[in-house]
Write a structure and sequence with these properties.
The structure holds 2 protein chains of 2 kinds. Chain A is mostly helical. Chain A has 13 helices and no strands. Chain B contains 18 helices and 16 strands.
């Protein structure tokens, strides 16, 4: 028998959907504005009363952006750097965060504290010594050099993030695996790791987006036009005193958001909670 | 950092195999290979980038033994980039920058003194006033030339022709510019029916006001006994007060533009919300590109005080001290900045060439788009006094910018802004002179 839905509930549902729509519009606003800007002529961009829909839509900004800069090549390099950075970050932070979460010792507590403290240093303070290290390792002006730096700077937060997920996995599950004869390694691989999937995906996304958008280190490390990443290419549409070529900049920025949107779309399905609901009862 | 370094080192091995691509840090070349020079350019406008690339291509075709790689940088971050690369010994061979940035790099020993390397033709084609903008203490007490100045910016007034004509005021010319009094009167006359006479975008007020202050002899800095201090006397106060009066007493300046960046008021300008916009000559490019059909505008010379002088900074090409090929780099600069090429670069960036031959080129003296007024203003450019002041950059960002913004917004008096500029400013400068 179908339950009758009362008018109050309908009103509440409608309001919920309206709120959801408003939130989606709020989130989509920057992207839509970017698209609108990318399709406008310089004259239309200079209007004091800006319009959502371009009066005379033009693709000239896209032509200029792609004609003047190697956006495709830069995007490909950014993708390589971001993928390697994010996967290596997860590869290192997964076992490290397990150790941080499960082993309680003075050294461990100091390590956790140090990971947090290391986040306090401003980039600019450490950029020169870091540059010297990379130079001595022959990694200046190379993509591997940039990956090393990105991994180094995303690791502390990734560790912190993942160890929270590890802590949420009940130790009883590992103990149960041990009772069944599994070694610690086996219980990590077969029991803990699958339960950490949402945490791994979240860390992967964080590391990917951090690397994809990173500008300052790329600026000082990469010097050859053939190795430059996307953020370095985008900044070329800006001039002194905050003056920018808005149209081509918007067109290039719009293209720059697409790979991270695709990446997010592919792995967001894994971002689900509740895997451990009811795992430990009684 | 130990953890970070250890982790970094650990990943190196995996990465070296994983990521195949890279530019390679190798710089050694056998004697058969062409000399390779990296040229960091900050050109960003479409025409300017095209001109830069075209000149580099021309050079590379004509000089197979000296190959130049064009590397595009950005004005916003170039000094952060260079600080690191200089410290690491990997800076580009040829560096595009502006003269205020050269002083610090020169005194730290990062730039090559070009004094002995400059070809006579290039040296004589550029006036001494421009060379003064790149002549600094090299850190050991000696003066050196640390760049070749090639583009300069002067201040002009971009005006709405319809509103200017309707006001009935005398239209100033390069030979007979407005005095500041005439400028103020003109702004008052043009202030009517909801429109203001002028707009002063003062998001970055320091360079603009200091350069204009020279028209009354205001230098803002004085040196005695090897020590530089800030001074704000009657000469320095003139321009400050006049701008302040337009904003707060005459009400002839648009208050809405006060917090804006240089180009931000342009949309209101096209709509006739104000009649005049004092700005650098480069802003004409934006007007040409953006102004609606039928919008008529003119370029007027900046107002004069006791003289028409303006402070000048230059865009420059320098050679890194660590460059392995300084002679080849100098040859490239000589080609890149010859008078013919300076015309192309000036047109591309809508700035003034330092080359006297280039400045006489018909393309830069035409009435079209105000080139005649812009180029004529070059004769009034003298080296900006702040260029030689160690610590100016910190004084500008930490002391002068907020103090001037408060003053123009009528939150503090002229005496209070003067006290801030001098007392707080001297504390900053003192640290650089210990």
């Amino acid at each position: 028998m179908r339950r009758r839905v009362g008018p109050t509930k309908i009103v509440v549902q409608v309001l919920q959907y309206l709120a959801l729509l408003a939130f989606i519009a709020f989130l989509a606003f920057p992207l839509l504005w970017l698209l609108s800007t990318a399709l406008k002529t310089p004259r239309e961009l200079a209007l004091t009363d800006p319009t959502w829909i371009p009066r005379l839509p033009t693709l000239a900004n896209f032509r200029d952006a792609f004609g003047e800069q190697d956006l495709v090549g830069a995007a490909a390099r950014s993708l390589v750097v971001a993928l390697f950075s994010s996967f290596i970050t997860v590869l290192i932070s997964l076992p490290a965060s397990y150790a941080m979460a499960r082993y309680r010792s003075l050294v461990n507590r100091i390590a956790i504290g140090w990971v947090l403290v290391s986040q306090v240093f401003p980039f600019i303070l450490i950029i020169i010594p870091l540059f010297m290290i990379l130079r001595d390792l022959d990694l200046v002006n190379t993509l591997p050099g940039l990956v090393v730096v990105h991994v180094t700077f995303t690791l502390p937060f990734a560790l912190w993030m993942l160890q929270g997920y590890v802590r949420a996995v009940p130790p009883e599950l590992e103990e149960a695996a041990a009772v069944d004869g599994a070694s610690r390694l086996r219980s990590i691989v077969s029991v803990v790791a699958p339960l950490l999937a949402p945490g791994v995906v979240a860390t992967l996304l964080f590391a990917f987006i951090s690397s994809w958008n990173e500008f300052m280190f790329a600026l000082v490390i990469l010097q050859d036009p053939d190795v430059m990443t996307l953020p370095l290419t985008l900044v070329r549409f800006t001039g002194p005193e905050g003056v920018a070529r808005l149209g081509p900049l918007a067109a290039a920025s719009l293209m720059a958001t697409i790979p991270s949107l695709i990446f997010f779309a592919i792995i967001q399905r894994r971002l689900k909670s509740g895997l451990m609901a009811g795992a430990v009862k009684g | 950092m130990r953890i970070k370094s250890a982790l970094a080192a650990a990943t190196v091995v995996a990465l070296a195999a994983a990521c195949g691509s890279g530019g390679g840090g190798e710089s050694s070349s056998s004697s058969n290979e062409p000399v390779k020079i990296n040229f960091l350019s900050l050109a960003w406008q479409q025409e300017s980038v095209a001109a830069n690339k075209q000149l580099v291509d021309e050079w590379n075709k004509a000089n197979p033994n000296i190959q130049v790689t064009y590397v595009q940088g950005s004005w916003d971050n170039v000094n952060d980039q260079l600080v690191t690369q200089f410290a690491g010994g990997t800076a580009p061979d040829v560096i595009h920058n502006d003269s205020p940035a050269l002083s610090g790099f020169a005194s730290d020993g990062y730039l090559l003194d070009l004094g002995d390397k400059l070809p006579a033709e290039l040296k004589s084609d550029i006036p001494q006033a421009a060379w003064d903008t790149v002549t600094f203490d090299g850190g050991k007490g000696e003066q050196g030339v640390y760049g070749v100045p090639f583009l300069q910016e002067s201040q002009v007034i971009i005006a709405n022709k319809k509103l200017l004509d309707a006001s009935g005021v005398r239209v100033p010319t390069s030979d007979n510019p407005w005095t500041w009094d005439e400028f103020s009167e003109a702004a008052k006359k043009m202030t009517k029916s909801g429109a203001y006479g002028v707009a002063w975008p003062m998001k970055s007020p320091v360079n603009k006001t200091l350069n204009l202050a020279l028209s009354f002899g205001g230098t803002f800095f004085q040196s005695a006994g090897g020590k530089t201090t800030v001074k704000v006397g009657p000469e320095e106060r003139e321009v400050l007060q006049r701008i302040h009066d337009q904003l707060n007493k005459d009400k002839s300046a648009d208050p809405g533009a006060l917090g804006q960046g240089t180009a931000d008021p342009l949309p209101s300008f096209y709509e006739g919300k104000f009649a005049m916009l004092p700005a650098g000559v480069f802003l004409r490019q934006q007007v040409v590109e953006q102004a609606p059909e039928g919008f008529e505008w003119v370029t007027l010379p900046a107002p004069k005080g006791t003289s028409a002088q303006q402070g000048a900074v230059s865009q420059t090409l320098s050679i890194a001290q660590d460059s392995e090929h300084p002679d080849e780099a100098m040859k490239f600069i000589s080609f890149f900045l010859n008078s013919t090429n300076q015309v192309k670069l000036a047109k591309g960036d809508w700035l003034l060439p330092t080359s006297q031959k280039a400045a006489a080129d018909p393309a830069l003296t035409t009435k079209e788009n105000g080139w005649d007024v812009a180029t004529a203003s070059a004769k009034n450019l003298v080296v900006a006094p702040f260029l030689k002041v160690n610590g100016f950059d910190e004084w500008r960002t930490k002391i002068a910018t907020p103090a001037l913004q408060e003053y123009f917004a009528n939150k503090i008096t002229i005496d209070e802004v003067s006290a801030k500029l001098v007392e707080d400013g001297n504390k900053v400068l003192e640290r650089y002179q210990r």
